[in-house]
Amino acid sequence: MNTGTTKAERTRNFIIEKTAEIFNRKGYAGTSMSDITEATGLTKGSIYGNFANKEEVALAVFEYNRSLVFSSVQAQLEKADTYFEKMMVYGRVYKDVIASVGNRGGCPILNTAVEADDTNVPLQLSAAKALFSWKKNLIYLIQKGTEAGEFRQGVNAEEIAISIIALIEGGVMFSKVTNDYANMDHVLATVQQLVKGIRAD
């Protein structure tokens, strides 16, 4: 047992883990308190004793689901030796990443962004924060790769980063709607071509 974790923290984590897939599949609006109590085996009082409301649970769950995707990608990035190879990771692993989270309802960033839209500002801001963080990481890799001589000088790192994110999330949406994750092959091949296109001669 982790002695550094309080009973309240363990209960919060338990609620988050048990409801993560439900929120990702049903969304914030579609997930009821009954879904939460059924998944956790806890009473409403216990839930509200650890979270102020359902929205607070949803925000914590989004961060948990996002971290699952991030950790999966990060593990592959750490295996790559060059900045070019790290960028190429995004053109390879997302099919497997999305297929794995597909069993949990799809990409949490896309799901949350689409559902929240203008109706739930806190969730919308959380999705935006995740996208900005992803963009920042890509820009960093491109800039460091340029400094290392792996990418061409004058490359617009922000433009490339946004394009890669848009391609991947668009591919996830297309694959999910058509229920054919093979569509990600075409999208990720384009991502790879985009990365190869900025490689220094």
Helix/strand class: mainly alpha
Q: Given the structure, what is the number of helices?
A: 10
Radius of gyration using CA atoms only: 19 Å
* CATH fold-level assignment of the domain at 61-197: Tetracycline Repressor, domain 2
Helix share bin: over 70%
Overall pLDDT confidence: 87
How are helices and strands ordered from N to C? HHHHHHHHHH
Quaternary arrangement of the chains shown? single chain
CATH class of the domain at 61-197: Mainly Alpha
> CATH superfamily membership of the domain at 61-197, which one?
Tetracycline Repressor, domain 2
3D shape:
elongated
| Low-confidence blocks of residues | none
Please report the distance between the alpha carbons of the first and last residues.
54 Å
The largest pleated sheet is described as: none
Strand content: under 5%
Q: How does CATH name the architecture of the domain at 61-197?
A: Orthogonal Bundle
What's the total number of strands?
Answer: 0
Written account of the structure:
This protein has 201 residues and is mainly α. The protein has a domain at 61-197: Tetracycline Repressor, domain 2 (Orthogonal Bundle). The protein has 10 helices and no strands. It has helices spanning 7-30, 33-40, 44-50, 54-77, 83-89, 94-102, 108-116, 121-147, 157-178, 183-197. The mean pLDDT is 87. Keywords: DNA-binding, Transcription, Transcription regulation. Residues 9-69 form the HTH tetR-type domain. InterPro entries: Homeodomain-like_sf, HTH_TetR, Tet_transcr_reg_TetR-rel_C_sf, TetR_C.
Summarize the structure.
This protein has 201 residues and is an all-alpha fold. Helices cover 76% and strands 0% of the residues.
